[in-house]
Here is the input.
Amino acid sequence: MFDLDTWQEILDTIRSNKLRSVLTAFSVAWGIFMLIVLLGSGQGLANGVEYQFRDDAINSIWVFSGQTSTPYKGMKPGRRIQMTNDDHDDIEHGVEGIDHITSRYVINATLQVRYRSETGSFDVRAVHPGHQFVEKTIITEGRFLNDRDIQEYRKVAVLGTKVADALFKGKEPPLEKEIEINGVAFKVVGLFTDVGGENELEKIYLPISTAQRAFGGANRIAQIMMTTGDAALAQTQAMAKDVHQRLADRHTFDVEDPRAVFIRNNYENFQRFIQVTGAIRLFVWVVGFGTILAGVVGVSNIMMIAVRERTREIGVRRALGATPWSVVSLILKESILITSVAGYAGLLLGLVTLQIGASLLPKDGFFINPEVDLGVAIQATVLLIVAGAAAGYFPARRAGRLRPVEALRNE
Amino acid sequence: MLTLEKVDKSYVSGRNRLHVLKAVDLTIDRGEMVSIMGASGSGKSTLMNILGLLDNYDSGSYLFDGTLVKGLSETKSAILRRQWVGFVFQSFNLIPFKTAAENVALPLYYQGMGRRRRLEVAKEHLARVGIADRSEHRPSELSGGQQQRVAIARALVSKPKVLLADEPTGALDSTTSDEIMRLLQEVNGEGVTVVVVTHERDVAAATRRIIRLRDGRIEDAHAKLPEA
Here is the structure.
């Protein structure tokens, strides 16, 4: 039932009662605006945390060697712990629940890489095939390293796409080509990309066995990483502890020594962040709910006062022939009009603010892509509209039911 | 035109029951201009509210132009009011945020007349009561006499059968009161039945018949003007 004349009458009333209308509109718009900004910020934080974990497998355990810091069994502190292939084998066969495992042998120099006349210096990572799963490497062409590469000491290499671009300049396909790394020839068997960012694309992967032999690494390794499948948090903690104990036994250091080896349990860290973001989300919801509640109370208050203030006007309208329902509907339509327009404005303003905020913040920080569930925002707006209408409805109905005489008597 | 027979009305507040109108018999003919007089508490306002379909009564009967008006719902009586009755109140009761023309146009809004047309009609009626130049003013910018003229224009705009005025000069000085009563006489001269509730002798003197009310009963339906 759309009646232009009725709305004209309502607009007149709104225009003639600016302060009241603006106050109502403001409490609604502000409530929605705050809710949108809060929810968006909460989401932005959660997105930021997830972004921080995007590079490596979440369910991974990383082992780095260090130096002892406490005396143990008659040995002085400051002893370097050097992990070897034997440690890798012991962990691989001894620790329960490992999905994929790899070691990393780090060559302590930047290596010269050459293809024909093109040269460059790139990081070389000598690893096992399981590395692909730990680092979330994405093969775009060819293949990653496999077990036979390791067993047969094959001279093969997998290149990051930026390495391939630098060496081959897009002139010829890199696969099956021979490149030289510090004078040793390797055949390119695969190209990869990585979600971890630009830096990760400037790496070269070689079979660990080949690299140890070619670059004088003997049996030394710098890191051991493993994924834990879908093991629960407690199980991953047990695995990390097992790894730590085995290394302590093999290298004779105190398992309580915090600096002998470093073990990072990504899954544990991730769970901790999930808890933090969960708490932030809960907090945001509580504050947002409070904001909406304050808006509801504000709107209700203004509507009740408005109706009381208008009792006399209602009496006049009734005497002039307005039916009770026409009085109620006049007040309700006015309330709904103000709250919906204001709610929509708050919604829009909130979204624009989030957009501006998102464009000003760095894209890789702890706060990225603040976004809001539009459904929630619209529900909150509707809630405010309904609350305003309800708060107006009851006094309006009472005023509409009053005999015009009584309403007129109301000074 | 208006016929009351044995109309009873009491108000109940808490345990108290106030018998306001007691078996009132009254007839007002078409085209009459009558005043209803009485001390305060005599029931004259209640009588006017019943005559103006603003209030119900308990027993008896009320014929409005031949139609029995009894136990109507609020909605029904509102619809009858907008067609039949025009009101003028002591305190004018104009809507403060509307201009004079908008106030006058309001009854036509409830009759369903279009916006432009009803503002035209409203301005014609403001001209008729002599304040055409004030049509865009708010009530607060008008004098008491001007406000009451606006109220009279508003009461007449819907072409009612009866114009009911409750102490129309109660808030005005004597010169302005005379002007307003002359205006009501003119309106009556055009054929509108006018009923004025008052306790002022001068106001009653300007009408053609005086109905005297005392303790909820009609004391005299053709009373003489009280001594000055």
In short: The two ends of chain B are 31 Å apart (CA to CA).
